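Worked example

This section walks through a single chain of length 364. The input is the sequence exactly as stored; nothing has been trimmed or padded.
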Amino acid sequence: MKKFFLHDFVITNYVTIFQILFIIAFLIILNFVLITAFKKTHPRLIESKRVWDDAIIVAIYKPLLIAIWFVGLTYIIPIAGAIFTKDTYKFTFIELLRNLGVVFLFLWFFIIFIRRLEKNLFNMSISDKKKVDKTSIRAIAQLLRLGAVIVAILILLQTFGIPISGIVAFGGASGLVVGFASKDLFGNFFGGLMIFLDRPFVIGDWIRSPDREIEGTVEYIGWRLTRIRTFDKRPLFIPNGIFTSIAVENPTRMQNRRIKTTIGVRYEDSFKIADIIKDVEDMLKNHPDIDTSKTLFVHLTTFASSALEFLVYTYTKTTKWVPFQRIQQDVLLKIIDIVKKHDAQLAYPALNVHFNENSPISKK
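Given that input, the structure is written out below as tokens.
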């Protein structure tokens, strides 16, 4: 009796079993075709100069692999369940599950695509021929990711039967309360928005503030905070709202670096000072690293207590700090050589005491 029942069970459901096996075989073939196509096309797309084609193939690969098996299983489960039960209402959740999975897979694809596209655009900036604004790219990418998440949430709410219009009405009524409770959060958000729009600095800039102890290289600009790497290599996290109320210097964007120094020569060498000043000025005008198109002068400025002081004022061509230090050192050493060439000496604080010939000390 049991053998007859099992035989009848198999005979009556062989079509269903064949359908399941056919779907599984189709999924395996489709999975194999997708993997093979990816391995053949991806290396070629990496070599392409376009930034979007490689991003699309990388972004669609994993979500599509999972989508093949996920969607296939949502069709297999009801078919397999029909063998053991005739109550099809038990599998009504499959359609809802399928819709949720598709939304999440599309969101995953879109986030991977934006991240890969952002990475490709950053790699373009390494080339000297194509410069891109990393700050703008990061801002647009963050906006797109945020927009994708919001759209996915709205679609999911609609899938669960929750009316979007009611949520919008609720958001308008509670927006004032939420805004007041999270004013600092919104202040940081709009501070980040102003940074992206006004662009007082971008990633990689060296910035500092005379109002706060802030100085370093910008590493990351987010919607809530900005990360700065100080010169002692410590990370400094600053809420973006602070930048709306402080002054920020951006030395990275300066056109030149300035050399401004005062040199003192002894009063005993006062008759040589004019020649010294002329030679120093000629040296600066002929120096290969000095920008002669900018203000350049060497003038006697002060009769100091122990020296005749002249001001050296000029600009270097470079704006980088380390080369500037080397150029400034070279200029100062050349000034020393010029002073020595005229048999003069650099002054230092000194005090001369003169005694009267009739004083007891002078007689000794």
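What to look for: The longest strand covers residues 257-265.
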